[in-house]
User: Fold these one by one.
Assistant:
Number 1:
Amino acid sequence: MNSGIKYITLLGSTGSIGRSALEAIANSGGRFRVVSLAANKSVELLKRQILAFRPEIVGVGDETSAAQLRQWAKDSGVTGIDGQKLNVLSSQEGVCEAAAYEKADFVISAIVGASGLRPTLAAIKVGKDIGLANKETLVMAGSAVMEEAKRRNVKVLPVDSEHSAIFQCLDGRPKAHISRLILTASGGPFFGRSKDAMATVTASDALRHPNWSMGNKITIDSATLMNKGLEVIEAHHLFDIAPGSIDVLIHPQSIVHSLVELIDGSLLAQLSVPDMKGPIAYAMSYPDRMEGVIERLRLEEISALTFHTPDTEAFPCLALAYEALKAGGTMPAAVNAANEELVWLFLKGVINFTQIPVIIEEVMMRHNVTVARLDAVFEADQWARRTANEIAKANCGGGN
């Protein structure tokens, strides 16, 4: 914290979480200031964000996009809020450098997918507190990341709505008082459908999430329930809770964001309207809270709050994620990588919706689990991507 202002680095600024974070920052009354941004290649949106927030440094993963942005910055004479020339970095190394920018007090990690791991680690290694919206960081290398954070005395604060809810419910309670964590899931657009009924769903069907506005990848993961499976793995590492003490319930209204059950049978729940600005603002301002971040929840206007056991026959990805967590080592990284590849193949029409879990399971059967050292994690990630594409190509005549 500097002069009452918290300086923010935002990784993944052009994604749905990144845009919500910038909205929360803009409405904070000057409490936060953006000094560093990172994204992959959405150049036009990045230009608008740069003009609005005047960061000092920008990391762009895609080399061509970085060159375009660098030329625009030179031609337009845009500067950071400090009046200095905007520093545009490129490639994953540039994104990692932006993540570790020395002037930042707090880093929001909102890059989608496995590409968020290295920048998040780069920020942790220089002692930056993290607002974690990139669940893949902990899915792939949870033990290593949390050990590094502990070694550097870094706080890892959850930004996912479910993990933020659990964090708020735990509120410093001793681990001995915790019986189980209950993650809630909307159920996505196909809640209640049988496995057979989903054989013909299209990408446009799967992208129609009933409650949340998210990027394509996360929305498909919500439809398969893989998103919830990845969140189970993330919760295990964030809160050091055994996998057998983490459950999932389908809650179509998305009002109860998650619950904590105590050993005496009490349940604690965090409720709010479904709006990501709430958990984002809480992570940035922790342990304080900001006023007027989201619309107030009017319980009297809610007709019912319902909860259901997940149907893992119709949505096997959730069960596969539990199996990956039980297997441990590099298995979660392999499952995450295979899933990422298969989501894009589904979006491109190469495979159908119900083939996603089938191919993931085949990848799991072929994977030789090793200890999750960082080099092994990245090797498993690349192996699983190749293997998932090979299986898809053999089964469907497609793949990358």
Number 2:
Amino acid sequence: MSTDRETVWSYDTVAAEYAAEAAVMPEWVAAEMDAFVTELGGSGRMLEIGSGGGRDALELEKRGISVRRTDISEGFVELLRKSGFEADLSDPLTEDLVDPQRPGTSYDGVWACACLIHVAREDFGTVLARLAEATRTGGRLHASVREGEGEDVSTHGSAAAPRRYVETYWREPTLRSALTDAGWIVSEIRRCVGKPHDRWLSVRATRA
């Protein structure tokens, strides 16, 4: 599996609480979203990896983008469905990424905000390559990972339930190489800061 099972369990357990915590979009994510939508020309069909509570998908749809919501956490998928949205339980390492609404048609873009941090380093290139295969030539990618060395176990968040998230950290040169090897042309990797000591590498790339 691409994601540690206890990480998935942690999200399943606190899906609603996590969605409430993450309801307000950080400024750096909003800026990346605006750039992503501009690069797509304000329209298109997009695959979202790690939809979580659905915040980003809603904002993308407000900007004119059609979104396929997916998540590896059953808790998040159930939450989205209860809210009236179509959502698919999907692991991008192992599941078929074909769009059920448009079989045989590639996505115009992939949005993977703050979710690939949970992909094991040895699986990261495979996931990026599978996302590239599902995207049309010239399609766009947004992905963000934590900047740093190695990996760690995080217990961040304020929801009452216990949490344990395995997170993999990246440096720009290694991240850029992984993207290029997987079939993406990197336009830019931006350094973004959320909360104090919360450093992100935010990728803007095009399907080769």
Number 3:
Amino acid sequence: MEKAKHFYRVAAHMDYAPAQYFFAKMKLRTPFSRMKLHIAHHWLKMCSEKTGKAIPLLNQVEKIVQFENDLKQHFYYDKGNENFFICNYLSNEKYEDEYSMRILGVKGRKQADIAYFSERISPLVSDEIVICCFPSSDHRNILTGIRKIAQFIAQEKGIDGTDCLVRWKSREKSSYGGERNIQSHVQTMKVFQREKIVGKHVLLLDDVTTSGSSLRAGEQLLLEAGALYVTKLALGKTK
């Protein structure tokens, strides 16, 4: 894979259109790669000037770029972890604010708080986006608040992908001392209903992010299963 990427990168810089196309596709689907969306967009645009093959994919990527630009106008962006979040989350009860209380409400599956966040996200979503959600650490806990938000949004816009990313084995919650590394998540999750995400732009939702490892693990699995690109969005981020 790395050898192929190196070959396509070199050939792309030598102005070889097919290499520009394939390098852009490979870059787009590489997890944890800074600026990958803009790099892919650059090479697809270069390629489209020489061959029409790149135009459909270029159109998809331009929609993704516009979507993430819109998110940056409304929410915060964590450059270090390459994910968006709506507000800061203060888990210590002494410092809880309105947004933190709403996130706790989502965790408790309160309809008013689920509706609040759904209505903030839904207007930004287009019909082509697949809405996925990060599963609970407890594999038996399926009907989470974040899943209800994803389903609520998908009723209005997008495609319901809430049954795609599944926890098949429970793990200890990170907030209770569980490991905060990507592999601890990857090893306990699987992707189902792959036909929903292959070649698609996925919006992956989570309630709270700290180190970013959970969202990155979800991104990795979805890309390996065939998703074109994954935008990661959390309701809150701990400081």
